[in-house]
Write a structure and sequence with these properties.
four-stranded antiparallel sheet; 21 strands; Adenine-n6-DNA-methyltransferase TaqI, Chain A, domain 2; 11 helices; alpha+beta; 405 residues
């Protein structure tokens, strides 16, 4: 394999499998196969977030005592994504149920000898930032980092003592950066709350001067497919409907066959059925196509101003309604179907009032979005600084002994 990710290094390159034991998780077992099988929690790729495990909504599956021994996890184990965001890693902590096993979309890594898992974690982060896993896991729609591929990846591997020194240094420096990022994210949340306040006020004013109308009288679902040459769109909770190519943080790969993607016209309502309750619903300002997993609705008439409809659909009052009518066992599985959405009512004042309320709300929203964009640029710069720092440390470009002095 090419050494391209490590153009500069002071330590020799060694395969990951040379220094760390790799165990890929078990296939999902939906039924009990022996009398001693137990129904236990299991982790999969979606639970591995950047530098942490997301332990909400951990599912269960059947596993034997042998499975528990082979695929169980201990505090301090490093879990690496085989699927999903391949190569992303996080440590098992004390919050993980001791009965937990890993599913096949994860690898469990443990050190051979006294090699440092923290050092490996940072090395994998450097590879991810360099886009090396995308190169390694070529596939049009779905990437997989098999155990064999992971074991063969070569990383700079100094002696165990320098490994720990590098990890200690990066623990300190990334914690400082992460603290600043967290503070800026809190500020961003406050700005979004200000935006929500404007939408809340608009809803209340509209409701005070008009009747409530069910959505089925205003919009209707459409299934307009076979437009594979149109630009691909995506929907974000905070940004609404955008051109997918305009964002670098959308890791969902677009399939080669786009014939089942749905046509979206300017003015159509797009609903992410799984995240509508979070506000992932918007009136589109773009024409293009979007995943068939989303709901696309077209206005029945011109009786509702597009800007007004966009703001009212994303208001706190409507998000509460989406939560109420979404169906599923837990939030991660909630879906808002058209048969529930259609009955939700919104205030529809006269056209002049709609436009006035929309302008008033948009003024506040524009200020909030400008502030958020500025904050986001700062966060992105910090993320780049963090990645560069990690790469420099694991390749020996930073003398961590001098930095610690």
């Amino acid at each position: 394999m090419s050494d391209t990710p490590w153009p500069t290094r002071t330590a020799p390159l060694q395969p990951i499998g040379f220094a760390y034991e790799i165990r890929t998780g078990k296939m999902l077992q939906r039924e009990q196969q022996t009398p001693t099988d137990e129904f236990v929690p299991y982790l999969k790729a979606v639970h591995v977030q950047r530098d942490r495990l997301q332990l909400e909504d951990v599912p269960l599956m059947w596993a034997s005592t042998t499975d528990a021994r082979l695929y169980g996890v201990d505090k301090g184990d490093l879990l690496v994504c085989e699927g999903g965001q391949v190569g992303r890693s996080a440590f098992v902590n004390e919050a993980v149920d001791p009965r937990t096993v890993i599913e096949k979309s994860l690898h469990r890594l443990r050190p051979r000898g006294v090699n440092s898992l923290r050092y490996l974690h940072y090395s994998l982060a450097a590879l991810e930032a360099a886009g090396w896993f995308d190169v390694l896991c070529k596939n049009a729609t779905l990437s997989h980092l098999t155990g064999e591929k992971l074991a063969a990846i070569r990383i700079p591997l100094p002696a165990p003592t320098p490994q720990r020194a590098i990890a200690d240094y990066l623990d300190r420096e990334t914690a400082r950066i992460d603290a600043v990022v967290e503070a800026r994210n809190r500020l961003m949340a406050q700005v979004w709350a200000r935006r929500d306040s404007a939408a809340d006020a608009m809803f209340r004013k509209a409701a005070g001067c008009s009747e409530l109308v069910p959505l089925w009288r205003l919009i209707q679902p459409v299934d307009d497919v076979n437009h594979p040459d149109d630009p691909v769109l995506s929907i974000y909770r905070d940004l609404g409907v955008i051109l997918k190519e305009s964002r670098s943080d959308n890791y969902n790969k677009t399939p080669e066959d786009l014939t089942k993607y749905q046509r979206v016209n300017v003015g159509d309502v797009v609903v992410n059925k799984m995240k509508a309750w979070q506000g992932s619903i918007a009136v589109s300002e773009h024409a293009g196509i979007i995943s068939p997993d989303y709901l696309v609705c077209r206005p029945r008439s011109r009786g509702v101003d597009a800007s007004y409809l966009h703001a009212i659909l994303r208001s706190p009052q409507l998000r509460a309604e989406y939560s109420r009518w979404s169906e599923g066992i837990r939030p991660a599985q909630w879906r808002l179907q058209w048969d529930k959405l259609r009955g939700i009512r919104i205030p529809v004042p006269d056209a002049r009032t709609q436009r006035a309320l929309a302008r008033e709300c948009q003024t506040e929203v524009s200020v909030s979005e400008a502030l958020v964009e500025a904050i986001a640029r700062g966060v992105a710069a910090l993320a780049e600084r963090r990645s560069a720092l990690i790469t420099a440390a694991v390749t020996g470009q930073i003398d961590v002994t001098e930095e610690a002095a």
